[in-house]
Specification:
The complex is a heterodimer of chains A (211) and B (476).
Chain A lengths: L2 H10 L6 H10 L13 H14 L3 E5 L5 H11 L5 E4 L3 H4 L7 E4 L6 E7 L2 E3 L4 E5 L6 H6 E9 L3 E2 L2 H10 L6 E5 L4 E2 L7 E2 L6 E7 L1
Parallel strand pairs in A: 1-12, 2-3, 4-7, 5-8, 7-12
Antiparallel strand pairs in A: 5-6, 6-9, 10-11
Chain B lengths: L10 H10 L1 H23 L4 H17 L1 H14 L3 E5 L2 H14 L4 E4 L4 H5 L1 H7 L3 E4 L2 H8 L16 H11 L12 H16 L4 E4 L3 E3 L4 E6 L3 H7 L3 E7 L3 E2 L2 H15 L7 E5 L13 E7 L3 H4 L15 H4 L2 H6 L10 H12 L1 H4 L11 H5 L6 H14 L5 H14 L2 H19 L4 E2 L6 H4 L4 E2 L6 H11 L1
Parallel strand pairs in B: 1-10, 2-3, 2-4, 4-7, 5-8, 7-10
Antiparallel strand pairs in B: 5-6, 6-9, 11-12
Amino acid sequence: MSGREAILQRLRRHGAGDPAAVDAWAAAGPVGPRPRQGALDGPARIEHFIEKAKVADATVSRIAGVEALPAAMAAELRARNLPATLRTGSDPMLRALDWGSLDRSEGVGRVEEPATLSRAEFGLAETGTLALASGPDNPVTLTFLGETHFVALRTEDVKAGFEDFWAAWRERGLTPRTLNMVTGPSRSADIGQTLQLGAHGPVALHIFLID
Amino acid sequence: MTAHEPKSRFFKANVKAALADANIQHAMRSTGPNFVGKRAKARDAMPEFDALRDRARDVKNHVLANLPLYLERYEAKVRDAGGHVHWCETPDQANRKVLEICRRVNAKKVNKGKTMVSEETGLNDFLSENGITPVETDLGEYIIQLRGETPSHIIAPAVHVTVPEIDKLFRDTHTHLPRDRDLTELSSMLAEARTILRQKYFEAEVGVTGANMLIAETGQSVIVTNEGNGDLSQSLPRVHIVLATLEKIVPTLDDAATVLRVLARSATGQEMSVYTTFSSGPRRAEDPDGPEEYHVILLDNGRSNMVGSEFEEMLRCIRCGACMNHCPVYQAVGGHAYGWVYPGPMGAVLTPSLIGVEEGGQLPNASTFCGRCEEVCPMRIPLPRMMRSWRAKEFEKRLTPTAARYGLGVWAFFAARPGLYRAATRAAMAVLGRLGRAKGGFAALPLAGGWTAHRDFPAPEGGTFMAQWAAKRGGR
């Protein structure tokens, strides 16, 4: 008997399970308690997203439209004393922009990446979290190898909480290899139980919220 | 004896050593209050927290009642996404499966994200013995791997290591750097480890991670981390292997959200950990990065025997560590004293369940039964009740030491005869009261050395509780 069969057989001694109950559970949708902080609407939702992202040590700037992104990006790089170079994927929104004198290259993350830029599919106001879908448009390694990770997010893609986020995610039909939910820059408290930013992933995370 | 062999049967000696170890005592003093305060703050900031705990408990109970169905549905979804599921009954089978995959792709180096299941199987030792180098990439795990140790806490594996010890460790290990470099700032140590591990991410052919959850709806495995090492370990190598156990299943993405809402708050007091990653299958045809192969090793290791038993509820555990953070015993002795993979209250229940009461039977005795573990458990696991069950089993199996059995026998004799019990305690208290009247207490007392070594035993004053109670009722 294979390990699979042996394990399943041992489990079935206590009942094989009820297929109808399992189907009903899946069909019921999000019936758990919905936290108030994940149910905000309108301007309060966006403010909450920004507030929570900042609590998680991210920085946020709002820009008036996607056309303003290259200039805002250049300004951020200058303010952080970073070179005017940028690594991105082939996201159509980023590709369509005129990046001017910024040296933008497309591809996966390399061992040293001072600045990377991704576009997030969604944001969650509940916790200031970004939801990124891996793929050629936004390679997953850019999210983790950038010393400073910049993320562009449309204000309209900020969802209140998990409930409407999952609904929107399913509706968009996304099935990437990874869905990366990111809340602030990487950190560790493994040395002296003192929290430090920039463990293996980015030291800093900046979000451009595009109206 | 390797680091992974169980030492739980030496619990008493382990505890003595831990209490006498100045470094452990120093490290533990700052840990507990830190975690406790952060969790309390997170709980207070969320009015729905307890309702979410109820829901999280119900989700897992539903899964455990239908586990064979959910495992089959999950497996089908993994296959649909191009992944492989390998069912393993024992740690040895799991290790061999990892080795088989490594050999097939000619791997020399395996990078590891944090996985407690690999501690259960002793994967690192096994790979090393077979000529493959495992590299722990979680900063805490990296530190203890260099020290030849196992984790002393399930989410803060190096919590027992002090800063001066890490300073020395890095100077002794990273010998390509100048010995007299400045490591005064904690940030310089972090930067050093970051630089060294960054290179290693690009060298491994296989990446191994654990899983906080397996989602039946989508076939995804989920890891929840703060450092990003688990993501680099699964995104850069050619092969991603997930080591997970049966009970990690949750039905849907919405159920995963319920668990996430209680997990980080209970563990570190964060509302969300930095990285929550949902992985399914290998990279897609058009993807420029990500692994080319995706394997899930589904390990049983005794869990299928817990289903339907009085310890089934332990399988709800989501490994947040809140029970050990709030445990007065864990906070006094640290994790290594428990002698195997899982310390604290959850370890006291899991260890005898997974490796036997003969090895782990002493752990459930290490409890004051203060009940804080159950109070803070996000999954509402009745840990004290299960520890009592293990105590009873230990007694039934005659594993309890003779002196303790004899003592319990004497106590039981009196406890079953209330009149005699009261008379005996009255007499004993009267004698103690008279003997201790002059000094008000005892600096030494036969059979109570464990108490009087640290503080005086107060001399009893007045009547026994029962005598006072009777007097009060009579006076009414």
